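Check the record.
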Amino acid sequence: MSKVAIITDSTSYIPANMLESLPVSVVPLQVIFGHDVFLDNVTIHPEEFYTRLQTSKVNPSTSQPSPETFKHLYLKLLDDGFDVLTIVISSKLSGTMDSALQAQAELPGAPVEVLDTWSTSMAMGYLVLTVARAAAQGATLHECKTLAEMGREKIGALFTVSTLEYLHRGGRIGGAAAFLGTTLDLKPILTLKEGKIEAMERVRTLSKATDRLVDIFLARANGHKTIRLGFLHAKAKEEATALMEKVHARIPSSMISESILAEFSPVIGTHTGPGTIGIAYMLGM
């Protein structure tokens, strides 16, 4: 029986200590400042990214990994005796899925599967961790993909941004476009729905936005016995910590199987901008 290796992309931004001893490889997306190209979480990290964002005369952009990058990794893992399951950012947010599929098509008959998570950040991260832990225990490629498809229905993300300008500039604004042009003191509550960023509502202050994130999340979590939580931020650790404390205060600790405070990767930060906070979760697995 072949072992299974999991490939994901850097927007999952899973803390390194959570990946120890797991068969996971991470393919970085790119952050581009003019002529300077950086590998997400490899040659640029959040602190440096936001410093550069504030001082750069050019707006950053992002790019997906090339098909050749995926193909090279597929061949290496196959040569090492692994079957491969690739779990990547929503195809409606990035072309990463297309690159993975192009590489897969160049290896006909090889045990390589590709899954669109319809998500990103630690929502995708918890899906990757769940499947990788099963793979480490001997699950087959078919079992891992089935688990990933089931888990995809259990993950989600809620977040608020300081401004919609970055989402608009990067073309990732989706249904939140309806909120463009509103006054700056109104904070949008956003979610990932069917792989796209969609607007839910607006509130007047960050404090009220935080309270609404908590309320909406608790409504989604109602009835589930186990919850995995990621409290995410883009240069807003204090605000994300406050969000975490509010959620923890309203959920029995016995329900929370994992909870972390984590940053958005520079690629995600390019599109959300600084000041973004959110909740990523996996329910019932």
